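Q: What does the assembled structure look like for these inputs?
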Amino acid sequence: MTPNPHADAVPLVEIHRGPFLESLHHGHAVICDASGAITEAWGDPEAVILPRSSIKMIQALPLLTSGAGAELDSRRLALVCASHQGAAIHTDLANDWLASMGLGEADLRCGPQWPDDRDAQAELITSGEKPCQVHNNCSGKHCGFLMLNQHLGGDAEYVRPDHPVQRAVLAAYEEVTGETSPGYGIDGCSAPNFAASLKGVARAMAWFASAGQRSDTMSRAATRLVAAMHQHPDLVAGEGRACTELMRAMDGVVIKTGADGVFTAILPQQGLGVALKIADGATRASEAMMAQLLIRLGVLAADHPAALRRVNHVIQSRRGIEAGLIKTVEGV
Amino acid sequence: MTPNPHADAVPLVEIHRGPFLESLHHGHAVICDASGAITEAWGDPEAVILPRSSIKMIQALPLLTSGAGAELDSRRLALVCASHQGAAIHTDLANDWLASMGLGEADLRCGPQWPDDRDAQAELITSGEKPCQVHNNCSGKHCGFLMLNQHLGGDAEYVRPDHPVQRAVLAAYEEVTGETSPGYGIDGCSAPNFAASLKGVARAMAWFASAGQRSDTMSRAATRLVAAMHQHPDLVAGEGRACTELMRAMDGVVIKTGADGVFTAILPQQGLGVALKIADGATRASEAMMAQLLIRLGVLAADHPAALRRVNHVIQSRRGIEAGLIKTVEGV
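A:
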């Protein structure tokens, strides 16, 4: 077992209710510039994390650098980088893509998942159907894996850690984080999720942020992916979700959430990359901290409704009575 | 603003994924005996918490000690102490009770809430209806408030902190915790939720655990409430929920979850009370820690499926691949 990566986590997000500090979230956050240098950090930049879905744009790189996805439009590229909520706009896109490859739902290896989208839930319930693998929030990423796999000629079990698809992902991951990954965990979608230091993930995001200034194959792939995510915030997550709402509230900034309290950001105009991990894994805290960092970096208005749903957020009772506040600690 | 009650929280619950410690939950836990003495503690027993729904059996005491609820059967008493998931067994019971008082849904002040029960969700979706206040997980508690209010003759706004109903709740709360409450927060159901030290809450649970040995009015009320919760674990929460599953797995032990990482337990045979608070508010951690403490106290089998869904729990991918483990830290 690895040592405790959260020993040096610091208080980041406070949950207040009435006059009481009800709950407190610790974590780590790192901001890197295009040179890979840390410009600001909270907690331990060396903390080793599983970045989960926050690095889907990295997992998508081999799809483009291999040439397999050369003809993909921006909608499919956005879906490759998505943790979507299984709404029709997401599942229709995934189904069309599978069909265009001569494949179907059964070729996916991500497993079935109930969609978070209320309309999609209602449709399943009223039709008496069960959710399928296309509803899985990672189905776009897996469509990308399947397309890459057709190009590489690997066997059907493309989520196996030693499969050519995942070897290609690891090579790209190690290149952009600048680290040798110390290992992997199996993600909720059954694909390996490679570990890195938080600093390494932030460095990778800064590399994405500055990709437009470079002309190598990998940087051009990164530029296409960032543009696609920016162009289709609704495909990257869905209505009401932090990634979608906050990207719409900003100009050109791309952000991506990951399970268990991870969040990343790519700021092309500033050439900055951000990565944060809430030590306890809470999404409410990763969203609050990311929103505050985006405000701090001058790319998100503190009074934008999408920001106020995440940080300096007034908690209400179910009758709308003001009950508490979610905020970051002083100084962030 | 009050000082940080979580400064001395200690690591309690670990989330492992592959070889990595992915996330870590800190918190506090206290076990008290019938004399009110602490027998074991982790973290800071003096930590001031908002106990949320974990003390609904305390909020129910005035309903019985006043005589208002003298004729209530055990099913309604269990519902008063419940955080239910809005299944038909819960909402039918609440609706019947409201009707028997000559009242209706509009008299509740808990606010509407989407039920967690999948069948209830399906029914609302297929009928095109919205959830109402009866679906609120606290609607049983509020039925009890309404019945007490009819007895006390207070005005309709029974959730006001200075309303006779809430004054009666506070008096009972301070008596059984042995503390003067330092204040309150507004709960999700709009009722005031009075603060106490974790030690005070554990002491109150030990008082409930030993109530059967005493014959005063308040202890007799406590005995009825504990018996009702024990008799109807399905009404206290619902199918699949920790309180329901774990109470069914034990003999006579009553447990109750609360929002933002609180959990309490009443062990009548041992005369012990337990209270715990996860500092970051995570339910997955409060459930794991409570299950482990119940195993430690010899009332829950470590290999019972209901236990293994909470602690030493194998995290699986959506295709059923073993991905990680939820466990408590060594020594708990």
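Chain A touches chain B through 58 residues (CB under 8 Å).
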